[in-house]
Every structure is written in structure tokens, then in C-alpha cells.
Amino acid sequence: MPRVCFTLQVDPSRLEEYRARHAAVWPEMLAALRDAGWRDYTLHLREDGLLVGVLATDDFAAAQAAMERTDINRRWQAEMAQFFPQLADGRADRGMHVLDEAFNLEAQLARTTSAE
């Protein structure tokens, strides 16, 4: 299953509150992410507010579109907008900067093993 990595910038003055919100994500939001195809989803937060998200999904565009169609996502994004003041509409789900994968240990090991 392909992995996706993205970055966002959380307001550095609100990191503890951001962490607290993510320590108890709404059960309906968790279920919506699961049902939309988000797997093994983690967020990593640096002290300056750099947020790095990593997830596995068969089709990221489809997974995003499925979330876009849910009311729970609209409500969650409205609640979280205060943490992303640099985004025009505050919608973190629309402001993700997706990174290209530059290295994958498992893929390279598999190529090495199959070449032997």
C-alpha cells in the first residue's frame, strides 16, 4: 500500500492545545478516516510547529475526496482552523504540502534481493 507524507505549519504558540486536541480525536472523525481509506496515519510535531503527517492509502486523492464529502470532516476542519492561521481558509486538509518519496529502504532491499 503506498504511503503519503505531507507537511503543514501549526501556530507555534498553540502546540500544547493542538496536541491535546489530537490526544482525543472525535470517534466519528476516526471512523470517517478509516472508512475513507486512511491507514497507519500518524502526525509528528516539531517544537517550531512543523507538522509531518504520514499515512498509507491505496489512492490518496480518493481518500481525500471521501473525507471532503463528510459532515464530520467539515466540522473538524472548522475546529482546527485556528491552528493554521497561514492558510487562507484554515483548512488543513486542503493546505497539505505532499512530499515526494526520495528513499525507501524496503523497496531497495527488495530489488537487491531479487537481483541476487
TrEMBL record:
<dbReference type="GO" id="GO:0016857">
    <property type="term" value="F:racemase and epimerase activity, acting on carbohydrates and derivatives"/>
</dbReference>
<dbReference type="Pfam" id="PF05336">
    <property type="entry name" value="rhaM"/>
</dbReference>
<dbReference type="InterPro" id="IPR011008">
    <property type="entry name" value="Dimeric_a/b-barrel"/>
</dbReference>
<dbReference type="GO" id="GO:0019301">
    <property type="term" value="P:rhamnose catabolic process"/>
</dbReference>
<dbReference type="InterPro" id="IPR008000">
    <property type="entry name" value="Rham/fucose_mutarotase"/>
</dbReference>
<protein>
    <submittedName>
        <fullName>L-rhamnose mutarotase</fullName>
    </submittedName>
</protein>
